[in-house]
Amino acid sequence: MDLVSGDIQHLSELRIVLMGYKLAGKSSTGNTILGREEFDLKRSTQCVRRHGEVADRHITVIEAPGWWSNYTVEQSPELLKQEILLSVSLCPPGPHAVLLIIDVDDVFKETERKALQGHLDLHGERVWSHTIVLFTHGDSLLNTSIEQHIESKGQDLQWLLDKCGNRYHVLNNQNRSDHTQIKELLEKIEETVAQNNGCHFEIDRQILQEMKKRRKAEEERAEERMKRMKKLRKNIRSQMNGAFVQKVHKRDSKE
Q: Structural domain of residue 193, as residue ranges?
């Protein structure tokens, strides 16, 4: 990992957001960071926030819901995009780092790169300078170094790493007892903060306001749909009751 000159400050508090496509290992990564089962491995459609004390630091971890790796941001549901945007505002005043989770075993070509770029770009260009690529399933590398692996994957993965300032880390979620890998990750997050002049990532307020406006409009539309459905059900019940009463009257008149 390339470092910039300057003092690396040991931070007593770290705020981290986990992002990535579905099944990349976000929940397992959150559990490995905090050292216990805090994140449910079942896929969630909403952000999840957990806290813990790790290596003399208070850690806040936010897991954002994932997207399908071959879906462009335009193909993802509006509610998913809103949750991804919301994730960085759930650890005020903002995360020290965004960990972009990628399974080392997965294909990473132009389709996956475009999908990943589109979803991260929701936060604006500044997010990239606070992002670290985190490779999961590091155990499957065996005798291959992560640098050799990156080289073998081709230009799309190299583009991503260049975009993130060549910041990356490898994690083996199967080996929780190896505390060194987490200690090194936390130090890399502190290095990232130092590279950003001691600042955390803060989303552009306008982006957040626009998202909240869209969410409110969506909630109002959902409420309106619910009202229409209730009215429709009421009308159907009323018509059915009317038809039943009519039928009874007809039967009674015949008798």
A: 13-203
